[in-house]
């Protein structure tokens, strides 16, 4: 019990240290905010373009969706990427050699990833409201919706990122993962109402967390009349909670099993084999 408690405390402390480093090192800081900044700049140029007869611009409708995509994509990808890289350079192997080291390691990475996402959401929300407008957390109901959608979206994304990080091999596989993820974002109504897409694409998008996180954010941040552009002219809070909750439950059940299996098979020989395979691809 003492070892577990020490591992948890050490993991939280490590995560907070890494989070501070993440937002004080210029290259990391640029990497965190480059894509959101480009997205906001593109939306700013669209602020005068109204969507149909909604009375709102395309940019105003897209800001909450951008927040949803940041939560799911960055939460998922941050954990995936760091697990793959730390397996490559031996960080994971060193953590395995310390009693309780793996528990502390994983907790630290979750704290860093979740903290990074929360900071990005706060900054992008403030910037979007300031330069584009149309979004506001008006009243306790809006705040409550914002917070439960944020929490469920993180719970859906972080364990999934851990599962992918445990099964993917090498930075090349992580890079290739971005392609289908970007495709899902494109069809999930993040930057343009999903109702403008063919029905079969709408069905595909609704299987994954991106659409539901974006929908939940729109329900919290946009005026009530904006619901007319959504499927069935409804914010579908029950469905949002159900789908995000299902992804979260599946991830929380599967991730520990996959991570334990990965840790059990992690060794000096397996790391050497990955390096040799990487060298063969390079040449």
Number of strands: 0
Q: What is the molecular shape?
A: elongated
| Radius of gyration, taken over Cα atoms and rounded to an integer in Å | 20 Å
Strand content: under 5%
Instruction: Output the helix-strand order.
Output: HHHHHHHHHHH
Instruction: Give a short account of the largest sheet.
Output: none
Q: Helical region count?
A: 11
- Share of helix among residues? over 70%
Number of domains: 1
* Unreliably modeled segments: none
For the terminal residues, how far apart are their CA atoms?
Answer: 49 Å
- What would the average pLDDT be, to the nearest integer? 86
Classification by helices and strands: mainly alpha
Give a verbal description of the structure.
- The longest helix has 32 residues, at 58-89.
- It is built from eleven helices and no strands.
- The chain has 283 residues and is mainly α.
- Helices cover 77% and strands 0% of the residues.
- The protein has helices at 2-22, 26-45, 58-89, 91-96, 101-131, 140-167, 170-186, 199-205, 209-221, 237-265, 268-282.
- The protein has one domain (2-170, 196-282).
- It is elongated.
What is the strand and helix layout of this fold?
Elements: H1 2-22, H2 26-45, H3 58-89, H4 91-96, H5 101-131, H6 140-167, H7 170-186, H8 199-205, H9 209-221, H10 237-265, H11 268-282
Helix pairs in contact: 1-5, 2-3, 2-5, 3-5, 3-6, 3-7, 3-9, 6-9, 6-10, 9-10
């Amino acid at each position: 019990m003492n070892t577990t408690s020490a591992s948890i405390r050490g993991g939280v402390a490590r995560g907070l240290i890494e989070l501070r480093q993440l937002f004080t090192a210029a290259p990391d800081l640029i990497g965190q905010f480059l894509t959101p900044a480009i997205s906001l700049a593109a939306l700013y140029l669209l602020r005068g373009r109204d969507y149909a007869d909604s009375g709102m611009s395309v940019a105003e409708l897209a800001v909450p969706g951008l927040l949803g995509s940041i939560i799911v994509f960055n939460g998922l990808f941050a954990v995936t990427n760091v697990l793959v890289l730390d397996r490559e350079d031996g960080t994971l192997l060193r953590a395995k050699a310390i009693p309780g080291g793996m528990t502390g390691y994983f907790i630290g990475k979750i704290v860093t990833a979740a903290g990074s996402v929360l900071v990005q959401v706060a900054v992008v929300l403030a910037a979007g409201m300031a330069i584009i407008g149309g979004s506001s957390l008006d009243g306790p109901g809006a705040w409550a919706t914002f917070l439960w959608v944020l929490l469920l979206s993180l719970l859906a994304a972080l364990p999934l990122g851990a599962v992918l990080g445990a099964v993917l091999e090498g930075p090349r596989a992580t890079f290739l993962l971005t392609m289908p993820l970007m495709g899902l974002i494109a069809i999930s109504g993040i930057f343009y109402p999903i109702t403008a897409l063919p029905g079969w694409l709408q069905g595909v998008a609704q299987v994954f967390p991106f659409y539901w996180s974006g929908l939940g954010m729109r329900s919290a941040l946009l005026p009530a009349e904006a619901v007319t552009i959504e499927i069935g002219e409804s914010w579908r809070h029950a469905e949002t909670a159900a789908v995000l909750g299902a992804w979260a439950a599946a991830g929380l059940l599967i991730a520990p099993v996959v991570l334990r299996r990965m840790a059990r098979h992690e060794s000096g020989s397996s790391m050497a084999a990955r390096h040799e395979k990487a060298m063969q691809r390079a040449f």
